[in-house]
Design brief:
The protein has 220 residues and is an alpha+beta fold. The chain is 26% helix and 36% strand. Strands 1, 2, 3, 4, 7, 8, 9, 10 and 11 form a 9-stranded antiparallel sheet that branches. Strands 5-6 form a two-stranded antiparallel sheet. Mean pLDDT is 79; it is low at 1-14, 20-28 and 85-98.
């Protein structure tokens, strides 16, 4: 299911804005839950396959992931919406007397860009090295996490940081890529939608986390 709102439907716009503000205030867990709710009724028309390799050393503990994650996503509606105009969302919300507080700019940006939520279909782990104070932790990636595909300037921007989290293990030495870096680096041109795109970057403020891999979008 896509996340895109025509401002002619003002009642739905106000409700969606408040829900999104609540999700921002609640942090990553709330955003992930909101994404899962949105994706419940979707009809997948594309598949996104991501090969990703992570590596960091956190307080002397190695953290490494080498995996392929496959997502189902309903992308066609947002590709169509990308060519339409969303209108003045700020003016519409002010007319509805919707107070978004300090999160206003972020919420307006989210509402103003066509985007879709993808859900995990399959995870293949080639290697995963994760530790807590007691030693190596045997676990997998978070299959309850979601992928967010945002359409901007003729490109699909992708982030899926919640899949690379470990909600059942709060004591592990882990470094999770930032949403901002993911959306900046994991990018697919709409004109070459089904071509594989490679990515690579390093986040010095996250224990020198290195991220590399590739993404491929294909029609189902």
């Amino acid at each position: 299911m896509s996340i895109f709102m025509d401002i002619s439907n003002l009642g739905q716009l106000g409700d969606l804005a408040k829900k999104m503000q609540d999700a921002y205030s609640g942090g990553t867990d709330a955003m992930n839950k909101a994404g899962k709710e949105v994706a419940k009724d979707m009809n997948p028309d594309h598949q996104i396959e991501v090969e990703v390799v992570l590596s960091a050393k956190i307080e002397g503990h190695d953290y490494k992931v080498d995996a392929t994650i496959t997502f189902d996503i309903e992308l066609e509606p947002v590709l169509r919406a990308a060519s339409s105009e969303g209108g003045d969302l700020a003016a519409a919300l002010e007319g509805l007397d919707v107070d978004l507080g300090d999160d206003k700019d972020a919420v307006l940006e989210q509402l103003g860009q066509p985007r879709a939520v993808g859900v995990v279909k399959d995870v293949k782990i080639r290697s995963l090295e994760l530790y807590n104070d007691e030693g190596k932790v045997e676990t997998g990636l978070n299959k309850e996490g979601t992928l967010l595909a945002t359409i901007k300037d003729g490109k699909v921007l992708i982030n899926f940081e919640s899949v690379l989290s470990y909600p059942e293990h709060s004591d592990v030495y882990v470094s999770i890529p930032s949403m901002e870096e993911m959306q900046k680096n994991i990018v697919v041109d709409i004109e070459n939608l089904c071509s594989k795109a490679e990515f690579s970057w390093k986040e010095k403020d996250k224990d020198n986390l290195t991220v590399s891999g590739s993404v491929k979008i294909s029609k189902k």
